[in-house]
Q: What sequence folds into this?
């Protein structure tokens, strides 16, 4: 036992003298210096496309015939823990929705929303889905309340795309603000 | 009456001083960029990327920002000391470069005049470097004292304690080189090493490597870089002696820090890695200044690499390394070097 400790101490002393730990550390960092970075060049050149399970901005869906799936049952607004969804139903038999009852107002307050997805679970017709839109910032409060007509627009990333990739993107600075437009044709996997 | 040769000599010296000063003033610009790039890539990031291609214009953006920032002098600060401290920190480090030889002398063809690639060849070059570089610590102590802030004062005090501990081993390792080279002139030290890496002081076995590592460790401590950057330990001292500085005065401290890093790299190259000599004898003549710059660049990269590898030492560990390890190693090594010089040669 005693000899063992002594030899270990000698080995320890030698390894300190030749900077063994130090060299090991330098090797690790030099390895990282040579390997590729994991930075996504957002917003200038690239943009992250989330997985389809991602919970972003709400969308209201339509069926194949273009009828609104929402029947204004108000279950989503009941299920919402923060009470951020407002639904006002109305009667409509012109075929706008799948039933005679459709939403006159369907409004979500994004400042209060915590993107838990309970509204998705509550929806009996799968009308409401949390989509993959995540660039929700704006310079005033105008964009924090989203209304039905805007939410009914088709999603920027189709359901068919699995996501989890980085797409080439363009940074566009226009009159109506800035946006990052992803080119879904050119994507790469992340290296992590 | 007026000696033409003397006037030409003076003009040459002034010209060389201006060139060296311009280079040193502009060096921190690329160095900050390189340091941030090295930091980024070591941490699997990209570093600065948005200003100019690959972020090369980032230092200029930073410089413009620092120029336009308000120059705040704390109300209870010692105004005079506070204002001169950055200058005091900066000037001695520039003065070190007076004796640095970047290349051998050469003849200009045509006008038949000899040009030396150093400003002055002092016969006490090593002493001059150690003495002048030691002065720059006053800038840090003044800055820490004059700010009238506890963080800055503690940073300055730590810096002075660190300086006292490590200046000894730094000087001892320079003494070792002087013993090996039999001269205190930096030009002679370089010339004594000659072409071929096996002739360099770094491989003057068995003492050369020990001197080199002692010098390297002490030098890192002298220029306050990680793992010995106790004076600006941001975890406990917010940022040490330059906590209260802003704008251009802060930029002067940063400038001093980067030029100090360059000067230490240059000293490592001159004292241990053969200065302008090429590592292997080559059939094609490559100008010595190329080898010099290349070696200095390697050392600068090494300092950045170490900075993003090691954590900071604790203060008592710093003192232990300085007093209990480096100085005894130096003393033993001086004996061995002296024995080798007297008995073996």
A:
């Amino acid at each position: 036992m005693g000899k063992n400790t002594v030899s270990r101490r000698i080995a320890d002393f030698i390894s300190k003298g030749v900077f063994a730990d130090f060299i090991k550390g330098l090797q690790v960092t030099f390895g990282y210096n040579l390997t590729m970075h994991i930075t996504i060049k957002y917003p200038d050149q690239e943009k992250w496309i989330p997985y389809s399970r991602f919970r972003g901005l709400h969308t209201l869906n339509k069926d194949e015939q273009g009828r609104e799936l929402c029947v204004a049952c108000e279950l989503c607004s009941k299920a919402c823990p923060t009470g951020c969804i407002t639904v006002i139903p109305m009667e409509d038999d012109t075929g706008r929705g799948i039933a005679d009852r459709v939403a006159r107002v369907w409004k979500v307050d994004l400042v209060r929303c915590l993107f838990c997805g309970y509204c998705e679970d509550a929806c009996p017709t799968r009308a409401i889905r949390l989509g993959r839109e995540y660039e929700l910032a704006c310079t005033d409060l105008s964009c924090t309340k989203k209304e039905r007509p805007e939410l009914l627009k088709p999603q920027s990333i189709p359901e068919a795309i699995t996501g989890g990739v980085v797409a080439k993107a363009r940074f566009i600075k226009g009159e109506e603000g800035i946006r990052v437009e992803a080119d879904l044709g050119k994507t790469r996997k992340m290296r992590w | 009456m007026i000696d033409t040769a003397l006037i030409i000599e003076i003009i040459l010296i002034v010209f060389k001083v201006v060139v060296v000063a311009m280079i040193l003033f502009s060096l921190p610009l690329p160095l900050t960029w390189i340091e941030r790039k090295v930091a980024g890539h070591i941490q699997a990031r990209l570093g600065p990327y948005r200003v100019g291609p690959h972020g090369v214009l980032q230092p200029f953006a930073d410089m413009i920002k620092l120029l336009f920032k308000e120059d705040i002098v704390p109300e209870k600060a010692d105004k005079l000391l506070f204002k001169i401290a950055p200058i005091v920190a900066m000037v001695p480090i520039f003065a070190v470069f007076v004796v640095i030889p970047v290349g051998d002398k050469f003849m200009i063809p045509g006008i038949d005049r000899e040009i030396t690639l150093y400003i002055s060849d002092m016969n006490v070059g090593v002493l001059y470097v150690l003495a002048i570089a030691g002065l720059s610590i006053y800038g840090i102590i003044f800055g820490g004292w004059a700010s009238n802030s506890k963080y800055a004062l503690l940073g300055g005090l730590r810096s002075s304690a660190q300086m006292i501990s490590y200046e000894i081993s730094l000087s001892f390792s320079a003494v070792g080189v002087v013993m090996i080279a039999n001269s205190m002139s930096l030009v002679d030290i370089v010339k004594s090493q000659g072409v071929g890496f096996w002739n360099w002081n770094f491989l003057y076995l068995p003492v050369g490597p020990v001197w080199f590592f002692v010098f390297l460790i002490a030098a890192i401590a002298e220029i306050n870089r990680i793992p010995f950057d106790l004076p600006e330990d941001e975890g406990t001292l917010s940022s040490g002696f330059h906590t209260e500085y802003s704008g251009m005065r802060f930029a002067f401290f940063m400038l001093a820090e980067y030029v100090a890093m360059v000067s230490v790299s240059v000293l490592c190259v001159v004292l241990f890695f053969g200065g302008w000599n090429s590592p292997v004898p080559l059939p094609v003549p490559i100008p010595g200044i190329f080898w010099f710059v290349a070696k200095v660049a390697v050392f600068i990269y090494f300092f950045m690499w170490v900075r993003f590898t090691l954590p900071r030492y604790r203060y008592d560990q710093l003192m232990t390394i300085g007093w209990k390890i480096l100085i005894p190693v130096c003393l033993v090594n001086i004996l061995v070097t002296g024995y080798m010089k007297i008995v073996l040669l």
Summary: Chain A touches chain B through 16 residues (CB under 8 Å). The longest strand of chain A covers residues 177-189. The helical segments of chain A are 2-17, 20-34, 75-79, 118-122, 148-151.
